[in-house]
Specification:
160 residues; alpha+beta; eight-stranded antiparallel beta barrel; 2 helices; 8 strands; elongated
Length: 160
């Protein structure tokens, strides 16, 4: 038994409408899962039990295309040894819930004057090995943002 042409058109219109609504929901959700933020922070951190410290300018750039960069420039010290720190951590990110995002496809660009040990960077500055450290929180506070891991705030970042 064949359906009348009018019934076929209504069914086709319903399928097209459902596809359009699903598409709109997907792209609306994807849009809200990205950020448009560029900010900087100066951070000094000490780990007394390891006699380790670092001071650095840290820039955070999160773009609407779900790509981001941490730019880190400064110095590290452990005991009497000192190193120059000058690298970018480039990543894709996925927006999670409540102003959190997960870093993925991480690539480190280490510039020529950066002579700091990668294991010290990973252990004390930004761990890329630990899966939990790849999830960052981003909280708006007055004219800046608090950026940190799920464990603790890391830095206050002021937009420019």
């Amino acid at each position: 038994m064949k359906l009348p042409l009018k019934a076929n058109m209504k069914m086709l219109l319903g399928v097209v409408t459902l596809a359009a609504v699903a598409n709109a929901v997907y792209f609306l959700n994807a849009y809200h899962a990205t950020y448009d933020l560029k900010c900087e922070s100066f951070l000094t951190h000490q780990v007394r039990q390891d006699d380790f410290s670092y001071s650095a300018m840290i820039g955070l750039d999160l773009r609407n295309n779900a790509k981001g960069t941490f730019s880190i420039e400064g110095g590290m010290r452990q005991g009497e040894k000192t190193w120059v720190l000058n690298r970018d951590v480039v990543f894709d990110y996925t927006g999670l819930h409540d102003n959190a995002f997960r870093m993925e496809n991480i690539h480190i660009i280490k510039y020529g004057r950066d002579n700091s040990p990668d294991d010290l960077f990973d252990k004390n500055v930004l761990s890329l090995k630990d899966e939990a450290s790849r999830v960052m929180s981003l909280g708006k506070v007055k004219n800046g943002y608090i950026v940190g891991t799920l464990r603790a705030p890391a830095l206050t970042c002021v937009p420019h």
